[in-house]
Amino acid sequence: MKAHSQRAQIAARLEGRVSDLVSTFDAEVYRFVQPKYTSVADMFAGKGPLYANGRWLAKGTKLATYTALAPEVALAEALAATRYYGFPDSRAAPLVFVTAQAKLKKVIDLRDGSIRQRLRLSNSTITELDWRFENTKGRESITQAFGWALQATGVEGFLCPSAALSDGTNLIVFPQNLKRPTSLRILSEVKWS
């Protein structure tokens, strides 16, 4: 896939500014996963982008764990691909609901209009851009270019408006950037009989 034409400019907008943009985050986060990914090693490992494109990273680039701040948002996000392609919601099932405690020190909040303005990233780009269409044309979307640039800065994650549920919020975590004492800890391990 061809890298977005603005990738270098996006990285330049972030360079040297991360310390001015970051804040801490400490709360529970949620996601729905397929049953085959419910081991402790898989649930929040962020391996999804290694195998499939997502709103914030193109396939094969970096690790990222997509989570939500509310269970309803996590479910809407889990159903988003199925609905995009017009399949019934039942095609997404079964799903397992999982929760983690995120304690991060370096998070950028893209819900903040002043931060988005500094980065030249609009709320509508975050929530309305058809990144799947861009990918079918062999192009990295601008949101994927931002995800790549954010990960490269060393931030542990970022908050952003949900594209699947209008009043929802997602937390995207970069597992490879977590440094002690920050953590993304599973609160309840899935145990199958």
Throw out a few tags for this protein.
alpha+beta; 6-stranded mixed sheet; 33% helix; globular
Number of strands: 6
Rounded mean pLDDT is: 94
Most strands sheet = 6 strands, mixed
Share of residues in helices: 25-40%
Please tell me what the overall shape is. Answer: globular
Strand % is 15-25%
Alpha carbon gyration radius: 16 Å
Order of helices and strands: HHEHHEHEHHHHEEE
Q: Low-confidence parts lasting 5 or more residues at pLDDT below 50?
A: none
- Domain count: 1
Note the total helix count.
9
Query: What is the terminal separation in angstroms?
Result: 42 Å
Description of the structure:
There is one protein chain. Strands 1, 2, 3, 4, 5 and 6 form a six-stranded mixed sheet that branches. The chain is globular. Helices cover 33% and strands 23% of the residues. The protein contains nine helices and six strands. It has one domain. With 193 residues, the protein is an alpha+beta fold. α1 packs across α9 (142-152). This is RES family NAD+ phosphorylase.
